[in-house]
Fold each of these.
Amino acid sequence: MKILATYNIKGGVGKTAAAINLAWLAAQEGARTLVWDLDPQGATTFYFRIKAKIKGGGKQLVGGQKDLTEAIKGTDYPNLDLLPADFSYRHMDIVLDSAKKPTKRLKKLLAPLENDYDYVFLDCPPSISLVSEAVFKAAEVLLVPIIPTTLSLRTLEQLFDFERKEQMEGIKILPFFSMVDRRKGLHRQIVETLPERHPQILRTQIPYASEVEQMGIHRQPLGAYSSNSRASRAFSDLWAEIKGHLPAP
Ligand SMILES: Nc1ncnc2c1ncn2[C@@H]1O[C@H](COP(=O)(O)OP(=O)(O)OP(=O)(O)O)[C@@H](O)[C@H]1O
Ligand SMILES: [Mg+2]
C-alpha cells in the first residue's frame, strides 16, 4: 500500500483536483484505491456525491475509538473508495494533540488497511499544523501543486525549510505546476526557471482549464466526463510520472 498526500500550505492550488483525478486514474488501471478527505470543507467528498459525515463522529475515528473500515464508502467507480470528510475535522489538531504520539496517529490508523488497498490518497486541508505533521509521517509521497506565482514560490520554499528543520525523513516531496496559464508571462517565466533551482519539480504541468473547474458541476473526476481534454491528458501524464518516482515496494 502506497500512501500519497496532496499537500500545500496554500489554499486553492489544486490539491483536491489532483487527489481526485490521480486516484481515479489509479483505480481505472485496476489498483485498489482509497481517498481520505481530511479537509473539513469536504470538497472531495462532495465531488464523489457522498455526504460529508462520519457516522459516530470524525473525532472517534481519528481518536482510534472507531474502526476506519466502517467509515469507508464505495464511489460510483470500480476500485475507488472514499473515506469521507467530517465537519469535526476542523478540530483535528486538538484531537491529535490529546492522543499519544499525535504525529504517528494517521499512520497507525491506516496500517490495518495495508492489504486492502494499493494506493491511498490523503487530500489535506491547506495549513501547516499538527495534522500536516501527522500526514508527513503517514505518507511516502507528498504531491505539492504549485501555481506559478511569486507567493506560491514562497510557500514552496517554506515547505523545503520545514523539511530541512523537521527531518521529514522517508517522505518524498514531488512538487508540480498546477493551473498553468501560458498566456501569462510570469507563469511562463517561473515554469521555465524554477526547475533549475528545484530539480525535484515534476515535468508534467497541469494547465489552467475550464474543464477542471467544471468538476464541481459534474461532480465527477475529469476523466469521467472529459477524457480527451488537454487537462485530462495532463493528469494521465502526471500520474505516469509520479509512478516512476514511487519507491519500490
Ligand atoms: N487546472 C485547473 N484549471 C482551472 N481550475 C482549476 C484547476 N484546478 C483546480 N481548479 C479550480 O480551482 C479551485 C481550487 O481547486 P482545488 O479545490 O483543487 O484546490 P485545493 O488546493 O484543494 O483548495 P483548498 O486549499 O481549498 O482545499 C476549484 O474551484 C477548482 O475547480
Ligand atoms: Mg482541497
Amino acid sequence: MATEREVTIEQFREQLWEAKVGRRIDEVVVHHTWRPSASEYRGIETVRGVRRYHMGVRGWSDNGYHIMIGPDGRVFLCRPLHRAGAHTAGRNAHTIGLALIANFDCDDPETYGGLPAAHQVVAALLKRFDLRPRAIRFHREFAPKTCPGLKLRLPEFRDDVADAVASVDGGRPKIVLLPGSETVDCNARVEEGVTRVDLRALAEALGWSVHDHIDDQGKVYLSR
Ligand SMILES: [Zn+2]
C-alpha cells in the first residue's frame, strides 16, 4: 500500500542500513517540489498531497520520490527504496530521488531549515551505497528545467554533504554481527573502498582476545 512515514535522522540511518534494496544504486538525484513551495508546506499533509497527485493525476503507483524533506527539517519516507522511483526520466532504475519541499527558484536556501537534514540524509545514502559526493546529481542535469531551483548550487551541496559524511564518520558507527544481529561498537568505516574496524572491539565481541605484542613481521596475535 502506498503510504508515507516520518522518521528521525537516527531512524533513517538505522532503517537504511537494514533495508534490502535489491537494485544497484549509482546516484542520488535531488529535486525541489517547486509546487508546493516552502510557505505552502503543511507537514505530512503536503507529502500526502504530492503522493495523491502523483497517483491520481500522473497515474503512478506511489509517490515518485523516495524521500521528501520539509522546510522544518522533517524527513518523510515515501516510495520504498527497493522500487525504482518516478522522478527523473530515463534515470530512475539506479537512482534514489529526494525532494526538498521548496521552490528554490524563489525560496532562499540560506533561510530554508530543511537543508541540514537533506545533507544528513544524502550523507547516509552515500555511505550506505558506498558512493562519492560526485554521485549527487541535480535533476536539471538531466532535464530542461531548473530543478532543484536556480538558487541551489550543486558544488556547494556536494561539499555540505561531504562535511556531513565526515561528521558522521567522526562518531563511532556500529557493526552488526550475524547471526543473532548483535551490534558491536568498533568504529566501522569505509576508506578508499576498504572496510576498516577497530580490531580489539570486534575480536572481543567474538570471544577472542588481542595480544598487545606485535611481532617482528608485524603480525598481531589473537587467542580464545
Ligand atoms: Zn526534479
